[in-house]
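pipeline stage [seq->struct] | target=rRNA adenine N(6)-methyltransferase | organism=Artemisia annua | residues=363
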Amino acid sequence: MAGGKIRKERAAVGSSNHYQGGIQFHKSKGQHILKNPLLVDTIVQKAGINSTDVVLEIGPGTGNLTKKLLEAGKSVIAVELDSRMVLELQRRFQGTPHSNRLKANALYVSSYKLFEPFLLAFHCIWSVILLKLKLNIPYQISSPLTFKLLNHRPLFRCAVIMFQSEFAMRLVAQPCDSQYCRLSVNTQLLARVSHLLKVGKNNFRPPPKVDSSVVRIEPRKPAPVVNFKEWDGLVRMCFTRKNKTLGAIFKQKRVLSILEKNYKTLQALQASHGNDNQMATDAFVLGDAGELSMDMDDERDDVQDDDDMEMDDADTKSDFKDKVMAVLRVKDCEYEDKRSSKLAQADFMHLLSLFNQAGIHFS
């Protein structure tokens, strides 16, 4: 029985005509090797890699995709957390025409926090990433890594990334889609994002618990003229309850308190700088960082509202509240009755400009 089982496993590996190696994979490290050769070919084809491209591959595993990337591009820099995989890559391509065009790096860390070592790799090797990035990243770091890439300068030409399908659908979601969220708005502000193909979990060994999707991310050039920190402050606030009206969101005592505190701080800064109001505004809005950050989505529309006590009641009046509502009720726009889940990029950009014109800033 045992011998028959072993023969079946060998036959399954052989029938795929795909290299697997004799390595035990660790799910805790996100090691799910793509075994379908047709999908590998499709991903490389849709990536549009040129013969002059230097390709960065994160998490190459045993090198099934690496081989195709080497055939398509100028060279491949493979970054891998597991030193066993690095040895496997070196053995696999040793003595082949590809050996001098592959650079495999192992990252040694003392914890399972994958985010930091991969970002370290970007800073170490970015100077040789000339045109294109190809990423096949651990899903645990999808959001922070995506925005770290989009904030990096100089900009890359294109990234082809495999994500968990749910995450990918949020990246490409449009207004009125059920998956449209803060992540969608912020990503699409900085880049054009398109869905290339879906990859079922049975195409991996061992199969993960979820399906995957491949997306293409092309940074917008030139980058949009907007203060990313302030932009994210507005979008984060709007998507705390994306299906509530903006009027309901901005009437909350908590929201009004934050905005009024910002407003008064800015007024004090402007007074202290005399006529140099713009310098005071820039210093306040930019703070210590001017780039867009992004954690996992924080909208809570799936949670039963239990914070009505935070909503401003009819008896609570203030000049500042009237100032905020006047922005939302501007003629020909009437944002008060609109919902974040239905607003496009241009709407958020216009709303931010209206708030700024009224002296209201986000941070």
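stage status: PASS
auto-comment: DSSP finds 14 helices and nine strands in the chain. The first strand starts at residue 33 and ends at 34.
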